[in-house]
Amino acid sequence: CAKESSRTSYQYYCKENNCEAINEHTMLSNIKLALENKDFQMYYQPIINLKTGKIENIESLIRWFHPEKGYIPPDQFIPIAEKSGIIDQIGEYALEEVFSQKKKWNDSGFYLEKVSINISAVNFSRAEFSSYIKEKLQRHGLKGEEIVLELTETSFSTHKSKMKENIEEIRSFGVEIAMDDFGTGYSSLARLKELQIDYLKLDRLFIVALIEEDGQEVIKSLISLANALGKKVVAEGIETEEQFSILKKLGCAFGQGYFLARPMPAMDLISS
Ligand code: C2E
Ligand code: MG
Ligand code: MG
Ligand code: MG
């Protein structure tokens, strides 16, 4: 509360806000430069069918290796890109890159059912987003069924109506939709049923809790809920053999995580 805060803490806050503003400004010009210099790269992490052990899907994850600052994680620059609108260009980069990569894999005979792409709610709620996706599918010669678009659970609550419309249109092309980081937001069960989503991606925090007895109960009920609603479950962030075998035992359909495979450049994927 401003009234009660001492002069020093007030100054401290001022300084901090100012510092944040400067950082955001610098970050934004760095993002623009990185787009120009092609410093972004897509990495790919296999999503595995836990029953068969087969790779059925691959999640694309953006990577930024800054020439001086080194690796900058997406959680640090995506939110700033979203605020400024430059996320449109980042989204365009990621979609173009991943669609053409998928086409290359198809042409080279590397069998892979689907690729997943993380999409910011800012992009997804644009009026023209579904026709934009349709055009991309046609231009790259891909079927909608080859693509999964991931949206975080929290984005569903902030961009309601336009997202819903876009989801319906995009699903009509055969593209599937995943709700990412499920468990970090507040989706009511009614909402889950009403939303046209194909996958529920259980946030890593649920997986960490698996070693606790009630942690397993939670996952078990989430899996049966998802099954009842006709949605496929993906467990995120599987880091240990123990987590892996518990999830298998609980009947979780898909999983990804460092224990199975780390995100890697497209080149490494073919040779692994
Ligand atoms: P996400 O979509 O939930 O991606 C999963 C994150 O968990 C990734 O972090 C991945 O590298 C990491 N991860 C995978 N397996 C494990 C594991 O076993 N343990 C742990 N601790 N982590 C694991 P990353 O790449 O830093 O991405 C963070 C978030 O940034 C993503 O979360 C996604 O929301 C966003 N993001 C990433 N790439 C893109 C993109 O191309 N476009 C947009 N709009 N957002 C992106
Ligand atoms: Mg994701
Ligand atoms: Mg996630
Ligand atoms: Mg996440």
From TrEMBL:
Domain EAL: residue ranges: 24-272
Protein name: Phytochrome-like protein cph2
The organism's taxonomic lineage, starting at the top: Bacteria, Bacillati, Bacillota, Tissierellia, Tissierellales
Gene label: cph2_2
Residues of the full protein shown: 379 to 650 of 650
